[in-house]
Every structure is written in structure tokens, then in C-alpha cells.
């Protein structure tokens, strides 16, 4: 078995790890929501979804309804998708194109810049007192065609939050050609952090992911910890193919797997230009929703090539193998047998993650 090399590109050493009760305690999740998720950047989409004036899509970020919209003035904005009259969720559709947004409760309408257009149940003098009622903005930044929002108005800018991550991302030249192709979700019975732990090491790959270790050169596999993110990956073995296509001739001749604090993963698989995001959204302390979004050069699944389909099958196989593992792990987290893991040298990216959680929770 080849042992993965972990390089530390930060100037810090990581030593502390979490105890298992942090994976089974609803109070810990409450703190994580407040001290982690409400303050960090969340990926909500890709600029290809809102290229034209009036185009929008809606999202949910930590239970907050959000709408991202390109105004009729071409400016991209993010708002809470909540009507300022009496809080009704404003836009129900997942995506669309509109010049005016209308609330279905009392018919208030809003311009694409979030300003109130009409409040039909307020007339005469009353009208003056609601004229400033507008959609509340959300912090948003776009980098490398990816749209992120942050619920904390005072958060550090996205561009300063992840070290040199976006420089690294810009090396994938196909990124701006990609479109959001497909999104799927899966609920599983495990704490969200268990999946992050699982993702941050590949010692389990030899045991759990036969197709993965058969495709990637595990002797060359590296894990690198950086500022608020880490990444890992390797090149493909010689003569590896999806169907008829030699992966060594592909646009991506290796796998690159990024993790961004706290719960976002971006994966690039061998094959044609591609990206997938994985977000681990906590539902409760022992239930998580995995959101998988695929990006290829086409905007729907029925247009993708056989090679792209093979890539998806490959990625999905690896993912379901992982979900099974973390569900088994959650059973052990609840046991009285042990309350702390042991971490090898090649599991050091997990230790970085643990240290960050402990720090954020002020533990
Ligand atoms: S709640 Fe939206 S118009 Fe009344
Ligand atoms: Fe895995």
C-alpha cells in the first residue's frame, strides 16, 4: 500500500482533534450554525445561470431563502428572497427570467434592483411610509465564475478568505466555459463533519474505492494543507480509459479534489473539462444533506457526452462508497467504546479541519 504524502503549505502545525461527542450533540450543531455557517462563504451557483438581464435563480443558505438576480441594468445582485411586507417567500421558482418580481400574497412588486415597485394595498399617504421597503441585500462575491454569498455583512472578503485557492482554481482554464449541468441531493444519517473527515484523507481509498485506486496513480497521491483549504489528488495511471477514451489524452489527466472551510468540496475528475461541487448541509446533528452539482460544457444532462456520463458514474460510485462508511462511523460515534480517533501522518488534513472547528467554537 502506498502512503499518501501530506504537505503543509501553511505556517501552522495542527494538533488538536475533536471528540466524538461533537458528532452526536445537537447543542454543538447549534453552535456550529451560529459560529461557523452564519459567518462563512457559501457557494450558490455559477455565472452561466444568470447571464442575461432579468435571469435569476433561488437558493437556500442555512435555511435562509436567497435570490440571485441579474438586474435589467446587467448588475448581478443577491437578496433575501423574503417580501418586506409580511415576510412571504417572494420568488417560488428555482430559476427564471423576469423584469419584475411579484409577491403572491398581497401583490407587492419589486424591480430587479430590489427596490419596491408597487404596494397595492397601501394607498395615498400610507404609500409614502412603505416606499423605502426593499429587498434586503446579501453579501455576494463572484470569483472564477463561481457565485458565493455570506450571511455575515462583516465577513472578510471571499478573495481574502482562502489563501491562494482562487489562483490555483484559475489554472483550470475551462472553468469559464462550464455550465451548471445537473444537481442532485442525498440525505444520509451521519454528522456533516464525518463526511468532511472522510473526504480529507485517502487512506481509505485502497480499501473502499477499488475503481478510484485503479484509475489514479496512488504512488503519486498528495494531500496539501493550505490556508482555510486543502487539496489532494494525483495523475491517472497509464492506459486508463472511460469507454473508448484514453484519459491520458483528456483535458483533465488527473484528479484534483479541494476542500474549502467549512463544508464545500470542489472536485475535478480525469476526463473532459469538468467540475463538481459537494456541499454537506447539516439537517440535524446526525442527518446531513449532500448536494452534488455537476458542471460540464452543457447545461443539461441530456446533452452530455458518453465520456462525461462515464465520469459521473465513476464519481457517483466513489461517493456512495463514502456515504456507507460515514453512516457506519456515526453508529460508532454514539458508542461508549471510544471517544476520540487516532490520526496517521496521512490524515493530517483532518487535523487541520478539527483545529479550525475547535477554534471557531472557541473550544
Ligand atoms: S407579504 Fe408580500 S405582499 Fe404581502
Ligand atoms: Fe472516499
TrEMBL record:
GO molecular function: dioxygenase activity
Keywords annotated in UniProt: 2Fe-2S, Dioxygenase, Iron, Iron-sulfur, Metal-binding, Oxidoreductase
PROSITE patterns tied to this protein: RIESKE
Domain Rieske: 41-149
UniProt xrefs under CDD domains: Rieske_RO_Alpha_N (cd03469)
Protein name per the record: Aromatic ring-hydroxylating dioxygenase subunit alpha
A Pfam match: Ring_hydroxyl_A
Presence of keyword Iron: yes
InterPro entries the UniProt entry points to: Rieske_2Fe-2S (IPR017941), Rieske_2Fe-2S_sf (IPR036922), Ring_hydroxy_dOase_asu_C_dom (IPR015879), Rng_hydr_dOase-A (IPR001663)
EC number, as in UniProt: 1.14.13.-
Statement: the UniProt record of this protein carries the keyword Oxidoreductase: yes
Cofactor(s) in the UniProt record: Fe cation
